[in-house]
Amino acid sequence: MKLAGAACLLALALFRPAAADPAASRNNEGNRLYNQRLYDEALRMYTDAQASRPDAPELHYNIGNVLFRKKEFDKAVEEYLRAQAAPDPALSQAATFNRGNALLMQGRPEEAIQAYVQSLRARPDDADAKRNLELALRLLQEKKKQEQQPQQPKDDKQNPSPRPQAPQPEGAGDRTPPQPRRPGEMSEQEARQVLQALQEEEKEGIKRHARVAAGDRPEPEKDW
Question: What is the pTM of this model?
Fold first, then answer.
């Protein structure tokens, strides 16, 4: 599965000059090791930096990126969630987007869709988030189709003496009961509507640029 968007690393916000801030210097060293794909060593540097800056969202974000590269997606999701609480809206949006990627890599398209929509609400022009939202919606459709397909009976030769099953009540197992949505979550249909609205908005923006380039400029607004 190829996801749009590469995880970037963040420098640590400094309270004092880098030379006098051990957390910042360890974070910078972690970034250098990460770029060399020495992920275990980078993770050690980031966690050392947390000794003096345990709540720094930049460190949670960078640790999430390392864990993502190490394919420890469940732990990466937790780190990105912590980074989402950052007061910096750009960092919060990037962490939300990366959390969607980690969820999708875990085969959790429903939750990934929620993350991508949340990311797009913060930054509607994020083309990578739009593409990954489309991918997540397609994967969710495929997952639903697979769940709806009847299971093929196993070969009798592989199971010569199957244990008889207890009879089930009529209609049992026909469908999965609907799961309640948590507050703030949206349905698959609502997610599709958000994506369509963003795409229409993008098309209108392209048309406006084309009209301006062709000399069809809008009339200036009047002063009342």
Answer: 0.66
